[in-house]
């Protein structure tokens, strides 16, 4: 597997997931400042010309959420998603999509100072998005309950980005405790080390 990646970008979440899975992969660095992602070859892999994107033999997949879905399906033994047929698999997809769709939208709302009626905005409002995540994380150590999953890789990556790196929103005790649990995982630490080492 080859991950099209650039340091300090959304590609880190896939790098973290690949470290959790523990199967061989290589990084293909795209120098975004030099425009290395604006080539016909990369356009064919991701027409958005953004990282991350994954190549796996003849298969290519872009969009972080889709790459997560591809990887948990390919490696069911990784234990990073409830098995097919398990009742909690629905909640797994719900939180994976929630994190990709609603936290990104909350960021945009804040950065662009957009104000839409809550009923019209698909994410409701940034306040509602963070309240919903807080409600769950105050009750259980991980987003699905007692067990860490790929949905936590996505959610913790997003929370880490908006709360700790960009400091766009006030953090909360439940988020800090959750991020502490997630960011001390050996796979996260390896991913961060690789993200800066290979930069
Ligand atoms: N929706 C995409 C977003 C990817 C994205 O925004 N990538 C940024 C880096 S964080 C990028 O490649 N920017 C380069 C550009 O647009 O020129 C995903 O979640 O994978």
TrEMBL record:
InterPro entries from the UniProt entry:
Glutathione-S-Trfase_C-like, Glutathione-S-Trfase_C_sf, Glutathione_S-Trfase, Glutathione_S-Trfase_N, Thioredoxin-like_sf
Tell me if Transferase is a UniProt keyword of this record: yes
Going by the UniProt record, its keywords in alphabetical order are:
Transferase
Keyword Transferase on entry: yes
Q: Where in the numbering of this chain does the GST C-terminal domain appear?
A: 85-199
What residues does the GST N-terminal domain cover? Answer: 1-79
Per its record, what are the GO molecular function terms? transferase activity
Q: Where is the chain membrane-spanning? A: none
Q: What name goes with this protein? A: Glutathione S-transferase
The species is: Rhodoblastus acidophilus
């Amino acid at each position: 597997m080859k991950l099209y990646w650039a340091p300090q970008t959304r590609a880190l979440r896939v790098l973290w997931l690949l470290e959790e899975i523990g199967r061989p992969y290589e990084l293909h660095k795209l120098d975004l400042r030099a425009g290395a992602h604006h080539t016909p070859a990369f356009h064919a892999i991701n027409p958005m010309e953004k990282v991350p994107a994954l190549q796996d033999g003849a298969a290519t997949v872009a969009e972080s959420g889709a790459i997560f879905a591809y990887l948990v399906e390919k490696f069911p033994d990784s234990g990073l998603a409830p098995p097919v047929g398990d009742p909690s698999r629905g909640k797994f997809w719900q939180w994976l999509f929630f994190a990709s769709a609603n936290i990104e939208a909350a960021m945009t709302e804040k950065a662009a100072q957009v104000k839409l009626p809550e009923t019209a905005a698909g994410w409701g409002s940034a306040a509602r998005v963070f309240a919903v995540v807080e409600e769950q994380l105050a009750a259980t150590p991980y987003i699905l309950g007692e067990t860490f999953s790929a949905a936590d890789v996505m959610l913790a990556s997003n929370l880490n980005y908006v709360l700790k790196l960009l400091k766009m929103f006030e953090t909360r005790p439940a988020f800090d405790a959750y991020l502490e649990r997630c960011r001390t995982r050996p796979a996260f630490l390896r991913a961060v080390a690789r993200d800066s080492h290979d930069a």
